Amino acid sequence: MKKVTLSGLAAAVALMGAAQFAQAADGEISFEGTIVNSTCAIEVGNGTGGAKGVVKLGDQVPVSSLAKAGDVAGGGAFTLQVNASDPGCDITGKAATVTFLPITGSAGAAGQWLALEPVAGAASNVAVQLRDFRGTELPVSEPSAEYANLSQPLRFTANYIATGTATPGPANAKAQFTVNIQ
């Protein structure tokens, strides 16, 4: 009788162990981030000011000026100014690149432009193109050329660009920006 009980107990323990292993799952999780010294406030210029500035590309841009893919119309200049007076913001001898990330989506064959907000009656076949201080196209989600003098405003322009024959309507786009000071 004792042999049966011990062998029964051994079998029960073996089954419980097997059940435990059957419930286990292997997986992996990554946590990523960057620890930085501090952040510097950035001010948007030539718009309405503040971190959520507005850059006017034209109140009344004629649809005829965006008749075929590649046509450019409207436009406005804007700046990003690093506020070095913030405590812990040291820009001495440093340079920066700027990356614009689309909030309203991207447009263009390579996704290089900002898509317009998808609102009722919005213009179609139109996107917003960004350019850096050299006048070179700055594709969204890619870092700009290096800005070497951070005590001066970081200069950009934006304009409408046709992706086909444009239709009229509101033509607004939104982007986040990151200034990477090195």
UniProtKB/TrEMBL annotation:
Gene3D superfamilies: Fimbrial-type adhesion domain. It is found in: Fimbrium. One of its GO terms (cellular component) is pilus. It comes from the Bacteria. Its main location: other. Residues 1-24 form the signal peptide. Residues 29-182 form the Fimbrial-type adhesion domain. Keywords: Fimbrium, Signal. GO terms for biological process: cell adhesion involved in single-species biofilm formation. Belongs to the fimbrial protein family. This is Type 1 fimbrial protein. It comes from Pseudomonas entomophila. The lineage of its organism: Bacteria, Pseudomonadati, Pseudomonadota, Gammaproteobacteria, Pseudomonadales.
